[in-house]
Amino acid sequence: MTAAYLPFHPDPSKPRFQVPAGAVDAHCHVFGPAAQYPFAPERKYTPVDAPKEKLFALRDHLGLSRSVIVQATCHGRDNSALVDALRSSNGTARGVAVVGAGVEDDELVRLHDAGVRGVRFNFLKRLVDDTPLETFTDIAARISRLGWHLVVYFEAEDLERLKSFLGELPGTVVIDHMGRPDVSAGVDSAEFQQFIRFLDEHPNMHVKVSCPERLTRAEPPYDDVVPFARTLVERLPDRVLWGTDWPHPNMKSHMPDDGSLVDFIPRIAATEALQRKLLVDNPMRLYWPEEAGR
Ligand code: 0GY
């Protein structure tokens, strides 16, 4: 377990880009506070506290309206901090939980009532111990009757191994951080083209065009990531989501200014129509379907 971890930006800039009304941050986290919600013993990193109050204040500062809070590995399968944040959000936050195959039905209902609408499967070895694929298949079957969807986090080099498993997952699947491409290889690389083909062949797959700060091999303003995100936004305008990834766990090279991350949006979604789909229509359909399209 390592504590080498940069704290989130203390004073993010005000973005120049004004997001459309009702914009959703579809990928962010809450951590702790550890005194109230201790981190999981099996965690691979120990973050600094990133409580709900800070998350909601940042959202307001950036001009965003709603948040999708994703359970991070440092909290394991204890979704208490997530549930607490959802319950105090006045309906402006929804969640993605982490559960085991043995989760009780009552617990799923409790999570649903709090605002959870999906579960996350994480395949990154640096973040989690291995889970048998059959376990994930069982969980997918358990949650589909709640109308939830799946969020999957893997790296580009894992796609070949995982693609038949992922391709058979039922219902909507959201892929985190563009499937973590090697951006130094370029959008024409065999690897990224394979990813695009996979998305073309599976219309249930959605993708988060998030985390330029993790994917870049350069520095802000992340020029090398733009072609990847832009390609996906233009090719799959109805299947892309965007998020800040605040408070950016495990960032060791630099900590992004969240205001600059918002200013990244018009570079990857060039028209108002694309921005609206990315920031409002698509996440609303997945997380607030009862209000979508109003
Ligand atoms: C992210 C990315 C990371 C961490 C986690 O659950 C997590 O701990 O997802 C990472 O280290 O790449 O989406 O926050």
From TrEMBL:
SUPFAM superfamilies: Metallo-dependent hydrolases (SSF51556). InterPro entries: Amidohydro-rel, Aro_Compnd_Degr_Hydrolases, GLI/LigI, Metal_Hydrolase. Gene3D superfamilies: Metal-dependent hydrolases (3.20.20.140). Residues 24-287 form the Amidohydrolase-related domain. This is Amidohydrolase family protein.
